[in-house]
Amino acid sequence: MFSNATMWLHGLAGAAVLGFYWRTLLLPKGSLAHRRTGRRYLLLLVPLLLSVVPITLAAVRDAGPARVLQLVYLALVVATAGWTAWRAVRDRGDVARFRGPVFRVLAVALFGAGLALMVVGVARSSTLTLGFSVIGIVYGGAMLAFLGRPADDGWWLLRHLNGVALLFAATHASFVGLLFRHALPGSAGETMHALT
After folding, report:
1. Were both Cys, which of 38, 51, 141, 149 would link to 24 (CB 3.0–4.6 Å)?
2. Any idea of the CA torsion for 106, 112, 115, 117, to the nearest 10 degrees?
3. Higher-confidence position of 144 and 178
4. Which among 120, 138, 145 has a CA at the least distance from the CA of 63?
5. What is the reported pTM?
6. Residue 74: exposed, middle, or buried by beta-carbon count in 10 A (0-12, 13-18, 19+)?
């Protein structure tokens, strides 16, 4: 079945991403092995994010606009964190290039999506949705603030580590949530999502 195949692809890509995250994390920072494994990790985010497209399309049919917004938002969070983690190292010698058009679009999109999700959270009285919205507002807001101030010498490392920290949260929360859903199927719901 199409949806099962998509979920398997998403699950396999997620497992590979989790493995490469830890492999990269445990290697000496700045080493050739760390850089190579980190690139593989970031490249594995591409099929993971692509697999979200059919999942989101299915949600349009089955779950409604609020769920679609959450899925698009979470994909945007992961894509933005991955992009900033990668480009900060790539562009460490040229902050203007790092803060170019892609950075600006991602900053505005993430901040705006966080605000939109906050509106949904308030309308639905959903603490979980409000909590998720803060990620985009804070991370996107920090990106927007970075556009208006001079960069110090270590700007790129801070941006890289911020992206990596957000990817840690996204990677592990998704994996733990998946384990909970399969190990304790009756626990699905807002409480389980909040715990993960």
Report:
1. 38
2. -70
3. 144
4. 120
5. 0.83
6. buried
